[in-house]
Design goal:
Strand content: 15-25%
Low-confidence stretches: none
Distance between the termini: 9 Å
Structural class: alpha/beta
CATH superfamily of the largest domain: FAD/NAD(P)-binding domain
Helix content: 25-40%
Strand order of the largest sheet: 3-2-1-7-19
CATH architecture of the largest domain: 3-Layer(bba) Sandwich
Bound molecules: NADP nicotinamide-adenine-dinucleotide phosphate
Number of domains: 2
Shape: globular
Length: about 500
């Protein structure tokens, strides 16, 4: 089979999809298409545009390893700056030519050695390989709240921010205290906007600085990549990733104690009023939920234009939010910072593999994957940032690059075994996947996400943490070389 006819389809033009396309192109694959349901690249950074949007991973780590960016303006990048980086990089590597925007894949079915794809606009395609790079946090979770339809003001989920709604001079209610809610409150409070923060469960906050890179520093990064590499270890970031992952999987570790104490000190040292401090004190262990890094939330919530609301929401009325204690909190805008459904991945797309097995039945109990990248019954189907990969406070770009290193080797095996007469397909055996999953679940029960006494989007429907339950080095190790003994290789006539 000529390389031209060996087709790879990538679903999603976010960070991971663009990465896959760049790497495939560099490896000589020349029949690649990316389907993107939206009209632009960027994935989560296209969808999230809320005020204060910042990435809590240091800028220079939130870049592809092969396309560093000397021009980051701050230690922690803003959403707009990241989106600009992805747009530029997509163009620089000529990936934009491969993307079909406004094109949603609704179904993928494996028939006679090829994936047959159906598109929402009625179009069809087929491919030897499918790479699902559809992201983790893209299906919004917006709780049904009684009376919302009566609300006279504007309301939206934070990932669907309506920028036509003016905020200055209005009263803004923000529901939810994850990283998103915290960043919005910090920004709006600093702008002097009247904000009410509805917090059902307060979360722990790790202090962090977000300094600016000077023009001199940026110039030094441009002229000498070594200077940039040194800057990447800003605040010992690289070492801290290992300590951090160790703390997550071993709540008794020294690292866990140090980080927990840092969060407690941050709260105690930052919040003066004893009642407010008590209201902001979480009832679970630090790091049980994804840790929030913020330079300024505690300062923001103590401004006179900011109000913390701890009473549960009863209902929404024409002019505000009524809480269970009977108080009506007047507001003009409601922002739902209520998070995402992290169990959806590429769904609602239908995926049908061999023997008629479909994704929904395969994931009936929980989304799972062999080593986070492949699934039984789904030949030549690969996932970036799929189930059970590390999704802590680390760079998902780094994780996707590691996953790609593994996937690329499998795609090469498939291409080598595919010619004009034969199609090779591979998928992990059910036994290998079940063994891995059993081990993963056992390890997950020892992590702080499970023992820490909290609810979070890390937990699946049965309360088992879905994230990689071992340390970062172990992930690096398993992603180095696929063990083909764990895979079923099938050949069929082309
Ligand atoms: P989240 O962490 O899932 O937080 C959702 C918040 O909404 C929680 O405080 C939750 O309260 C609250 N909530 C949900 N339903 C509610 C209801 N019915 N009534 C009252 N409160 C309700 O969501 P997120 O803040 O959007 O963050 C999601 C993830 O996105 C983060 O963990 C992170 O991975 C990523 N993110 C990253 C950054 C970054 O800087 N890198 C920034 C933003 C987001 P309970 O705790 O009581 O459930």
């Amino acid at each position: 089979m000529s390389e031209q006819s060996f087709r790879v389809v990538i679903i999603g033009a976010g960070m991971a999809g663009v990465l896959a396309a760049i790497k495939l192109q560099q490896a000589g694959y020349d029949n690649i298409a990316i389907y993107e349901k939206a009209d632009r690249v960027g994935g989560t950074w296209r969808e999230n545009t809320y005020p204060g949007l910042t990435c809590d991973v240091p800028s220079h780590h939130y870049t592809y390893s092969f396309a560093r960016n000397p021009d980051w303006s701050r230690h922690l990048p803003s959403g707009a700056e990241i989106q600009g980086y992805f747009k530029r990089t997509t163009k620089q590597y000529a990936i934009d030519k491969l993307i079909q925007f406004n094109t949603e894949v609704t179904q993928a079915e494996f028939v006679d050695g090829l994936w047959q794809l159906e598109l929402k606009d009625g179009g069809r395609d087929s491919a030897n390989i499918v790479v699902a790079a559809t992201g983790v946090l893209h299906q919004i979770s917006q709780p049904a709240m009684a009376g919302l339809e009566r609300f006279q003001g504007a309301h939206f989920h934070t990932a669907r921010w309506d920028h036509s709604v003016a905020l200055e001079g209005r009263r803004v209610a923000v529901i939810g205290m994850g990283s998103t809610g915290v960043q919005i409150i910090s920004e709006l409070s600093a702008r002097g906007i009247e904000v009410s923060h509805f917090v059902r469960n307060p979360q722990w906050i790790m202090p962090v600085q977000n300094g600016h890179y000077s023009e001199q520093e940026r110039q030094a990064f441009r002229s000498d990549p070594k200077v940039l590499e040194e800057a990447m270890d800003f605040a010992g970031y690289t070492a801290s990733v290992e300590v951090y992952t160790q703390a997550l999987i071993d709540p008794d570790s020294e690292g866990a104690k140090i980080m927990g104490q840092a969060c407690l000190d941050n709260l105690n040292n930052s919040v003066k009023d004893a009642k407010l401090r008590q209201q902001l004190t979480p009832d679970h262990a630090p790091m049980c939920k994804r840790l929030i890094f913020s330079p300024d939330y505690y300062q923001a919530i103590q401004r006179s234009n900011a109000h913390l609301v701890r009473s549960d929401i009863e209902c929404i009325e024409e002019h505000g939010i009524r809480t269970r204690d009977g108080v009506l909190h007047g507001c003009d805008v409601i922002a739902f910072a209520t998070g995402f459904r992290a169990d959806q991945f590429m769904r609602p797309m239908q995926v049908i593999g061999i023997d008629g097995v479909d994704l929904n039945s395969l994931w009936a109990k929980r989304p799972s994957a062999y080593l986070s990248v492949t699934m039984p019954y789904m030949p030549n189907f690969f996932m970036l940032n799929g189930p059970n990969g590390p999704v802590g406070n680390f760079s998902l770009i780094d994780i996707a690059e590691l996953q790609w290193g593994y996937i690329a080797q499998l795609i090469d095996v498939v291409r080598e075994g595919t010619d004009a007469d034969t199609r090779l397909a591979l998928y992990p055996s059910k036994q290998a996947t079940d063994d891995f999953d059993a081990m993963r679940v056992e390890a997950a029960k020892k992590t702080i996400w499970y023992t820490g006494g909290c609810q979070s989007w890390y937990l699946d429907a049965e309360g088992i943490p879905a994230s990689w339950p071992w340390n970062y080095s172990r992930f690096v190790e398993v992603m180095k070389t696929p063990d083909l003994n764990k895979y079923v290789l099938m050949t069929g006539a082309a």
